[in-house]
Fold each of these.
Amino acid sequence: MIAAASKSTLQTSFPLVGASLAELTEWIQTQGQPAYRGKQLHQWLYERGARSLMDISVFPKAWRETMADYPLGRSTIHYRAESRDGTIKFLLKLVDGSIIETVGIPSEKRLTVCVSSQVGCPMNCDFCATGKGGFTRNLDRHEIVDQVLTVQEEFQQRVSNVVFMGMGEPLLNVDSVLAALQCMNQDIGIGMRMMTVSTVGIPGKIRKLAELQLQATLAVSIHASNQRVREQLIPSARQYPIETLIQECRDYVKITGRRVSFEYIILSGTNDLPEHARELASHLRGFQCHVNLIPYNPITEVDYNRPTDPQLAEFKHILEDRNIAVSIRRSRGLDADAACGQLRASRSAAEALTEV
Ligand code: SAH
């Protein structure tokens, strides 16, 4: 009786992608199969990219046939756009029909995946395309892990780095994000330090990550050097004074011994004046951090401008002069609308695209 009940619950509610070896071993036993098949299942899911139990040729044929429709938790590729620089943006269709974006970014030695943590985003930052389409729901563990498996499969190459810089605010979905990180590390084999969680900052959540001793890199989208400008750009900043945010980051460094990255989008004339650079430097003085300057990538709904190279260089120079580690992030994938902040999957955009 009990076995039958748990079997049916697991069947309807347990997508296999994202599960650990122990979970897979337990599950396969509830299906009347020997424990060692858990290891085979693990290998087929994570190394061989099985999309259905039917694919797993080492399993008994009769059993595979009865399980052919069991959902593994894989998405389908709805659309892909390839940029001249090799970056590929995917629109992935989830089981419930939701569309999310994932970007694969190849470079000489790496393959980086930019993953989404939510369908849409509730933060509504002024300069970001994702928020313009509203928010639908959080992603589950398997839906995050699936994005990495999909990129791995499409590029026929192992993923080396993961950044949570796609759609959504990861710290509004901490449990699934942490579970996905765990799986990507333990089951797919990506080093914790090769993964970055990027957040606009949610009160109290950075402290929580510190207490959990997050080993992935924490990136904080600061984008402004004072509360007034930050509130203009980021509506949620009203509930989170910049001083409190920075204090939480200082504590994070103290507790984890790991530095924090700050992302600073450069919007010409809005937050890139020399006084802004000086103000930012004074906030960040004396703690282990790194600033990434991101020239604004244009989106249609708003009227910001990209900075010129000399403007960017001056801002950088002012920070360097004050001993702040800083680099400029040149976005990849601009011509495929796959760069930072350009990710959207609005229904009209998705419907206009041909299915592949
Ligand atoms: N919600 C998270 C992760 C998603 S955004 C966060 O805010 O960090 C990933 C990065 O892209 C963030 O730093 C974000 O501010 C930046 N970004 C958003 N819109 C952009 C745009 N139009 N041009 C350049 N960067 C942008």
Amino acid sequence: MEKLKFDEMQLSSWILRAVTDMGFEEATPIQSQAIPLIKNGHDIIGQSQTGTGKTASFGIPCLEMIDPDDRRLQAVILCPTRELAIQVSEEFRKLLKYKDNIRVLPVYGGQPIDRQILALKKGAQVIIGTPGRIMDHMRRRTLKMETVKYAVLDEADEMLDMGFRDDIELILSKTPEERQTVMFSATMNQEVLELTEKYLKNPEYIKISRKELTVPQIEQIYFDVKEKDKLEALCRLIDVYDPKLSIVFCNTKKRVDEVVEQLLGRGYFADGLHGDLKQAQRDRVMQKFRSGAIEILVATDVAARGIDVDDVDIVFNFDIPQDEEYYVHRIGRTGRAGRSGKAFSFCVGKEIYKLRDIMQYAKTKITQQKLPTVTDIERTKKDIFLEKIKANIAEGNLEKFAEYVESICDEEIAPIDVAAALLRMQLGSTISDYSKSEDDLNAHNPHNASEKYAKDMVRLFINAGKKNKIRAKDIVGAFAGETKVPGEVIGEIDLYDDFVYVDVPYEYAKDIIDGMKNKKIKGKRIIVEKAKKPKAPVKKKRR
Ligand code: ADP
Ligand code: MG
């Protein structure tokens, strides 16, 4: 079944207007299948990955069937966490933009219960909440389930994982038999099926097929590393790409704790999320992540499920996921809402076979890249710093500082020594912290595959990159235009944000370096030089 347009679903005009305002152009596959079925009164089980629009799948038909003139409770949406309950409420609120006589109330732990009781007394037709807090209100008789027509179990698998089974069953058992029940789950297992059999009536099962799972705008890259070098690799990538927010996925809770510990030790702002944390702790971590107080969230698959943060720049697969499906879930955390994102996977030895399975399953391509070397990082940092110095000089008002410099200069100390010492104090202090002094962490250099190729090629470094909007073809064009090198002999081009590596045949290297002197690519004056061996490691972002 293909995707439908929202105006093909016989929806009320107020919903259509709201959906248009939300920027939805067409329904997602799960929405295309679920909305018509639910509207026709069917119970359904919907299974699709995170970020495929499940909320609106149950939210739109739910709001359509609410009778605004009946002030009593008509729909209950159960979510595993407060975080998700808030997200779902917000989506409902947007859907209700042009409808003011339906009241939706989020009900979750952590909020003062008195205030909730007051709000409930005013009457809500839809409540969205965590099973624990809803149970609480049922016990206090501030919530009565007898009038419920529609129940939703969102992220059912996770609610079960979190031990909400009894609560869910109790809540459902207090609602009328003839209610409609809708369940969404990212994965299916025995326990989920048992719940389905007990509480859903002749449900339609909707599963979104695998090929619709892929997320094409995400750049997917893997690095061949040794197990013991993973942390080092992670730090280098973070330093070079400088993501605002990133998520690091690990396969176990223990691993999450270790990685967090080590990142903190190296001065990064990181925190962990896994199943052992209490709800309040999870909320605190998520709050810090959203506000940018932590930049790196280290998480297990289950803990991170369903979390909707839009600006995640990079997802790291610190461990290759056990389950192919998890890979798709994980990388879906970046590149949201049309933004571009990156997914970096660390692949140790034979894990390449697992990665191949993932590529096949997700019908996607994950390409190998070399890890940035310490030299790359050092150079990036140096260039950035020198640019800052230039900008500072351009600002002027340096007289007072010039006097300071003069005051320590004599026959022994020249101004250039002062400048060099200051630079070392600035950069040198951040250099030296990489645990590994060897430069090359790559377990296998991809070029070794072709010995001859490696021998005959020279690696050049260009001090500008993607941030300067430079693409591979710009480099080929510039080289061919400014020198005599034919485009087709130029080898691999590795584009990074702030620099580029280009492999060129040995015999052309000098011509290119000379020919590109004082030349520009994309308006940026560039320097081309032979890529050097590393000196000392560099590091960034300390507390
Ligand atoms: P899921 O519950 O499947 O993880 P959500 O319902 O949280 O997914 O939706 C993920 C994001 O996609 C949200 O920001 C939502 O507003 C957006 N979204 C949902 N449906 C559509 C659509 N039809 N077109 C564009 N964006 C959509
Ligand atoms: Mg969801």
